[in-house]
Amino acid sequence: MRRRTRWCVTVLVTVLAVGTPTGWAAADTRPAAGEAALARFHQQRLDWKSCKENADDAVGTSLDEAGARCTRVTVPVDYHRPGGRTLTVAIARIAASDQAGRIGPLIINLGGPALSPFPLLPDARAAMGATGAKFDLIAMDPRFVGRSTPVDCGWPQSWLPRSAGADRESFNRMTALSRDLAQRCARKYGDVLPHASTNNIARDMDVIRGALGAPRLSYLGYSQGTYLGSVYLQMFPGRADRFVLDSAIDPDRPGFDIVRDNAPARAAALREWAELVARFDDTFHLGATTEAVLSTVDRVYEVSAERPLRVGRFQVDDTAIAPLFSGGLVSDSEATAADLATTAGLLARAANGETVEPGKSLEATLTGMFTGDGSAFRSQQTALMCGTAGQSRNVEWYWRDIQAHRAAGPLFEPQSRNITPCAFWPAPAERPVRVRNGAPALIVNAAGDIDALLPMGQAMHRALSGSRMITLDGVREHMVYLLRGAPCVDDAVNAYLNTGQLPPADTTCAE
């Protein structure tokens, strides 16, 4: 059984996408303020203190025990108006223990794009070993996320990750939900949401670099965090040191557009999973052949479109079935496959009219989907995605796009192409930065990743013409370095971080 062997993290992956942007209402595309206007931010004095914010702060306690110190960095809400309102961005730092070999600060971003790296900072230091000891490892919550002036729109349920479902009625429900959630956010935060962009997060990173007194900044970014890293390289190439972009996305397709073409990869992964599960029909009872298992999945989806499935306290309809399966296909480990088979078995029993109770993992997933418990994280995630890139506001465009692709992928195409709150969101204040430069970076992708598809990583590689790329062959995994336990990747990344020298050529390797 293949396992992630060192740095363990539960990854929440953005799995819903929409079409290409069609307009940029009220877009402010002027250059941001220059160095002189931002000097007070770059030169601010940082007040380092305990990371523990209150008696119940388990994350802060863990950081303190690991020797971390925390502070808040003041940045402009709008970099075009640096004399206006400000917000604070929270960072935690574990200082380099190898002072003789110290390289400088390295910011870690887990993607999401609203996953906080704070809880994982001590594990990252341990997993990176002697390499990590040479860096001041920095966890940064992006603006409006976690500890960084967070937003929470008070959502009663989540649209993410949801599907447009099997018919127009389900699509209409998702449209109404997306409109309602967007309006809730606009009422509370409409004046700042246009500034929740990747461009501004990159600018925040550079303010942090300046406030740390560092001439250059290193970076380890995963998934959506690879786009942030590429934007920093575009905006501040002379201030970038060692940049690792793991599970990279296409920088020409920021926002929710990024996964709109991944339904075929998800379908292929589902077939691979079904083939494995069929060999253990005595255990899972989903079917003794690949086709039989896939038929079970199809039946679950079809019944959920006719009537919601009762799973514990939840009514699971056809908008939830695709994400429940796609979320279990991100990794190719046998343990993950078994977990998904257990979930599929529960859903199949519910489709047969049985009363079923979800396990702990499924309970957590459904709670985040159908209740307000995940409001803060989902609000923040959506704010960063919608604030980075505008999306079509034509509801019928989404429906036509779904219908045009439904036959090719009845389960996953309506998920990948679903409408999102971005269709009703306050317009971003500026356009995304176009990434095209020769700054050096090391790109890592698993060949079988179903969220950051290999062609996406290759597109990032082309956009960063000075980069090198490591492809881990024969693996379906999202986020590889330190997480998969693949020596050929870990050794190459560590060598680059230690020396600053990229590999002489692109490499494809296996575990």
Question: Care to describe what's here?
Answer:
The protein contains 17 helices and eleven strands. It has 511 residues and is α/β, with parallel strands linked by helices. The chain has three domains: 40-140 and 191-254 and 430-509, Alpha/Beta hydrolase fold, catalytic domain (Rossmann fold); 168-190 and 375-424, no CATH class; 263-370, no CATH class. The strands form two sheets. It has a nine-stranded mixed beta sheet, sandwiched between helices. Strands 7-8 form a two-stranded antiparallel ribbon. The model is unreliable at 1-6 and 8-29 (pLDDT under 50). GO terms for molecular function: hydrolase activity.
CATH architecture of the largest domain: 3-Layer(aba) Sandwich
| N-to-C span | 13 Å
CATH classification class of the largest domain: Alpha Beta
* Beta-strand fraction estimate: 5-15%
CATH topology of the largest domain: Rossmann fold
Quaternary structure: single chain
Radius of gyration: 22 Å
Secondary structural class: alpha/beta
Largest sheet strand order: 1-2-4-3-5-6-9-10-11
Shape: globular
